[in-house]
Amino acid sequence: MLNQITKILQNNVIDSFLVLDNKLSIIEKSENLNASKFEEFKSMFWIEDSHKLSNFLDKLKKSGNSIADFEINFDTKGYKKYKISGFYQSSKYYLFWGEDSKEYYNLKELVAKQAFTINSLNKLNSNIIVKLSRDFNIVEILNSQNTIFENELPRYINNSLFDFVHPLDLENLKIYLTNHLDPNYTIELRLKFDLNDAYWIKIKQMQINKESDFICLAVEDINSVKNKLIELESEKNQAIHLANHLEESRENERKEMAREIHDEIGHALTSLKLEMNILLKKKFLREDTLHNKLNDMMKHIDETIRMLQRISAQLRPSILDHFGLIAAVEWQAKEFQRQTSIRCKYTLPDEDVEIPESLTIAIFRIFQEILTNITRHSQATRVDVNLLVENNTLELRVADNGIGIKKEYLTSPNSLGLIGMSERAKLINGNLNINSVLNVGTTITLVVKF
Length: 450
What we know:
rod-shaped, Beta-Lactamase, alpha+beta, 5-stranded antiparallel β-sheet
């Protein structure tokens, strides 16, 4: 605090100044008095001014400011008349003088206001205070302890604030500092540390007064909150994107089911109807011909039943309801090998385990999605499936020897298959881990506690 006021006094063309404590000991003085030789403040004043000096100091302490003429000897050249201006603040006397005493006396108001504002800013423990010159160079940073500035103060001092602001926020900051002097108006921006790192802060401009040669900014650290909001917004957009994808997938599945029912089952039933009409029209048929016709119709009926079973299994395999998760995983692995010709080796528990139905369905759907991704993208020739259940913990591991997944695809918002599996896992408090090595293969592990 003392140094701040001293700087203000030194920077406002005052010839000389003294700062005294309550015991009238000199604790600070202007540079031009450094060579002066004196031990006691009162000893500098002409003895006949001692009573006047006491009244002057009492008035300073009571009213806060005063001005008076004194005969003073600051060196060995003898006494000289000075018009002393002074004010009292924070248990200290501030005395200053110069050729134009009126100008310097009025300066007291500027010093008091600036000193008070700086003192107030220092009490804002929740904020960092950045003091800027009029050309926006950083002059001082207050309350920097335990902040991003603490260990790098020399890097900032005497450099332009604009040098440390992220390029995307630079223009907004310049507009703000130029046009918005309202202390209630704030702006959020990023400080840059390197090419890949940025730190979010919120600033509020706190101009000391219009005549001041510097500007103060109250800086609030909002990095963790801002990053959390950005993360939540990203997750929200990802969820919307995933929901749209799932709805589109459902619509495509409905179209596929409608096509199969119309083209295959509809065609089969129409064919059976035509054959029955032919039989009804031909009243006299040899017994062996009739027998052959009926056998063909039975074959068509069996094929239609198998088509219905296949479509039904795609929607939800009945084996999952009747025989449980272990049997359903084994059936799906066999179906996968049959349909894709990719060798599928599986290791499963000998007996089924009792798992809540909601978990069973989610685990099975994740397994189906893993196999679907392998079919579409992996170019694998072998898949190993391991399912282990122990101590109320289920671990499903599926590994392939395909081309792997690029790192950018693992975190891409467009990798909706991977996102869908992760979201299903979260819904059942499970953990899905994807480990992939290019041209070696991918291993996906799902761990669920129940």
